Amino acid sequence: MIYWAKFLAVFVLANSAMAADADNMIMFPDPSAAPRTQLPEFGGLPARLLNAGQDGGKVAVIETPSDWSFDFPRQRDYSLELLVISGELSWGREALRRHDYAYLPAGVNAPSLAGNQAATVLVFFDPPRETDASEGNVVHSSGKNWRVGSVATRDTGKTLNLEVMDLLHVEETGQRTWLLRAGTDLDVPWERHSTVEEGYLLSGEYRLVECLSQGQVASNYVAGGYFYRPAGIIHSGPESGALTDVLWLLRSPSRLDVTFIPDCDVH
C-alpha cells in the first residue's frame, strides 16, 4: 500500500518561494523551491514534489529519460492523472505530446509507458473515489476546441479574455480537470469556492493574492508554479491578474462554484 507522506511547510511572506499556514494553503510560486525526491510510483524517477498529504494525494513533476519504459502494477490504490509538459511519451499505443492528458482510475489496467526522448510530466495521484470513471481517458489538446469561460461571463456580466478546455469532467460530482488560458486584461474580483482548487502554471507569469489568516499574501507565479487552496479561502481581487498571457492546468474534486466577495475579509 502506498504511504502518502505528510507534507511539511513553513509560512513565509509574499513573493516567497513557498508559503503555507494554518489554512493548509500550499504555494510554490517558484518551482525551484519544491523539494527534490524519487517517486516510487514511477520506478524511482527523479521528481519535484509539489504536494503530498493533502486529501491523501500526491502531486509531482517527473523527469523521464530517453529510452525509458515502465509498467504500473496491476493492483493500484490510487487513480492517476498525467499531463505532458514537454517531450513525448507513449501511453500504450498512443503518443502523448506537449499538453496531452491521460486519466487512469484505480481499477483499470494501466498501459505501458515508454519514451524515445526525455520528457517532463505533471502527475496527480489520488485515492479512489466511488464516482471515478469506469475507464481511462486520453485527450490530445492540440485537436480539441477551446470555449469562452462561461462562468466568468455569466457572473461578471462581461466577456473576459478567458478560455477553457475540459480534460476530465465527472457529471455526478462536478469533479473536473481543465486548461485555462487568459490574457493580461483578465480582471477577477475577490472570490471563494466551496471546494478545493489546485493549479499548475504551464506558461506565463501570474500574480495571485490569497486572503489568509495572516492577511493578504501576494505571489508572482512563474511557469511551473503550483498552488493547493482548501475550500473557503478568499483569493484573486484587484491586485491579481495575468502579467503575461498564461496557461493554467486547474483541478477540483467537486463542482467549483464561485461566490464573489466585496473585499478581503478573513474574519
Count every helix, treating DSSP H or I runs of 4 or more residues as helices.
1
Query: What is the H/E order?
Result: EEEEEEEEEEEEEHEEEEEEEEEEE
Biggest pleated-sheet summary: 7 strands, antiparallel
CATH topology of the largest domain: Jelly Rolls
Structural class by secondary-structure content: mainly beta
The number of E-state strands comes to 24
Model description:
- By secondary structure, the chain is mostly beta strands.
- The chain has 2 domains: 34-142, Jelly Rolls; 145-260, Jelly Rolls, CATH 2.60.120.
- It has 1 helix and 24 strands.
- It has one helix at 150-156; strands at residues 26-28, 36-39, 45-52, 58-64, 68-70, 79-86, 89-91, 94-96, 101-104, 113-115, 119-126, 137-139, 147-148, 162-169, 176-182, 190-192, 197-203, 205-212, 215-222, 226-229, 235-236, 241-242, 246-252, 259-260.
- The longest helix has 7 residues, at 150-156.
- The relative contact order is 0.17.
- The model is unreliable at 1-22 (pLDDT under 50).
Keywords:
single chain; 267 residues; seven-stranded antiparallel beta sheet; Jelly Rolls; mainly beta
Could you give a short description of this structure?
The chain has one helix at residues 150-156, and strands spanning 26-28, 36-39, 45-52, 58-64, 68-70, 79-86, 89-91, 94-96, 101-104, 113-115, 119-126, 137-139, 147-148, 162-169, 176-182, 190-192, 197-203, 205-212, 215-222, 226-229, 235-236, 241-242, 246-252, 259-260.
Chart the SSEs and their pairings.
Layout (H helix, E strand, L loop, with lengths): L25 E3 L7 E4 L5 E8 L5 E7 L3 E3 L8 E8 L2 E3 L2 E3 L4 E4 L8 E3 L3 E8 L10 E3 L7 E2 L1 H7 L5 E8 L6 E7 L7 E3 L4 E7 L1 E8 L2 E8 L3 E4 L5 E2 L4 E2 L3 E7 L6 E2 L7
Antiparallel strand pairs: 1-20, 2-3, 3-4, 4-11, 5-10, 6-9, 6-11, 7-8, 7-10, 9-12, 13-14, 14-15, 15-23, 16-21, 16-24, 17-20, 17-23, 18-19, 18-22
